[in-house]
Amino acid sequence: MAAEEFNFLLATDSYKITHYKQYPPNVSNIYSYFECRRKKGSQFSEVVFFGLQYLLKKYLIGQVVTEEKIQEAKLFYQMHFKQDVFDEESWRKILEKYDGRLPIRIKAIPEGRIIPRGNVLFTVENTDPDFYWLTNYIETMLVQMWYPITVATISREFKKILAKHLKATSGSLEGLDLKLHDFGYRGVSSQESAALGGAAHLVNFCSTDTVAGLLMAQRYYSCPMAGFSIPAAEHSTIISWGRSREKEAFERLLEQFSSGPVSVVSDSYDIFNACKNIWGDKLKERVMERSQDSCLVIRPDSGDPAETLIEVIKILEECFGCSLNSMGYKVLPSYLRIIQGDGIDLSSVDEILQKLTDEGWSAENVLFGCGSALLQKLNRDTLNCAFKCSYVESNGKGMDVYKQPVTDPSKGSKRGRLSLRRNSDGFLETIERGAGKPDEDLLVTVFENGSLVRDYSLEEIRKNARLRDEEVNPTLHNHEQELLHNHIINGIH
What we know:
Blueprint: E1 27-36, E2 46-48, H1 52-60, H2 67-81, H3 88-98, E3 104-108, E4 114-116, E5 120-126, H4 134-137, H5 139-143, H6 146-170, E6 180-182, H7 191-201, H8 211-220, H9 235-239, H10 246-256, E7 262-265, H11 271-282, H12 284-288, E8 296-299, H13 305-320, E9 323-324, E10 330-331, E11 336-340, H14 346-358, E12 366-370, H15 372-375, E13 385-394, E14 397-400, E15 419-422, E16 428-431, E17 444-448, E18 451-452, H16 458-464, H17 469-472, H18 478-490
Helix pairs in contact: 2-3, 6-7, 6-14, 7-8, 11-13, 13-14
């Protein structure tokens, strides 16, 4: 839907337009919050907060209510419900009183911050008592935050794994930001998914082929160019030469891209033959002429990822030799690297890197590409994202509210007005029932009455999301790891 066609009044679950008739009489304020619930046994204990600014800029700032949109919504909901339940009068009041801007306040943690699950991430409330129902009307759109949060979180988990192995086998984190390449553009559900997911990955890395994510970072997060790529072959550009001319196909790529890195998929027929007899024999001199700045990146793309990569690197060692780095691990010549982009997820990356380590190889030798496991194999329950009402005011009196299902205690919700603070032990915790101190609250007003109050750049967000020392230091003491784990999982403060 083009921006000029977007109708905010239609951007919600349809049943929500009936809620203004359901709240208690004389309600003047509804206050709700968003969190990633803590879930015992979950793979992820903390989350990266990202994407709210895009939703605000794209859909909520400025005039979002017009007479034309009111009439469109009125007709639509009349047809949909087959009865008159649309609150035309209230929407027209917003148009007349606020020039169609939303009387809503949203407070949120700064984008890029790393937050243990079970803590408030943002809060929403109406700023005009006549429009108390607006708070939860916009839930549908705001809960879609689950997607960029989840992608940014998974991407950062990849970064933690890569950092751990890179530091342990090379002694440094040089090149870490380029170690995971986003291959996910074609594997997501829409252009907007590609933009949101692609940008979420760029919170942690600078390597991508997902143009939509780069454009989003440029347009909504003030980053002229957030990620980079290199010329790369696909199977069509190799097999179009015919099986008997695979060597000529490879040679063509070396010639056409002689001054920078180039990636060549090499498993169209036989990856092991390609590495041994074409790259390592017929084209060996051409490969050795290249430099670190114009390295050849060989891409296997089938078979068991770990087994195939180990076999490939052994063949390349036989053909081109290797050296030992300062940590005593083997490294291929600087003009030669491998990228594994097939079958990559959090589990397989850790397995591959551990097997390389066991075989004496540094993580410097390999890069990874990831598609669906990064941008698509996830849903709202991956991080148990939820938006719940926790406070209401009626007849001038406030009341803390909550849900507490007897059948599932994990779905219990928070109570009252919330704040997020860092306690005396250094851990983040949510304060309920309005008991928090304003000067300690880490939640920042980002949107109020139709205007963006705080604008984050991707540079700021990346700083917020940087890895902690204990996440990259392989010598971290076990008791320190256990303390951090217990705090995040069990809420020990």
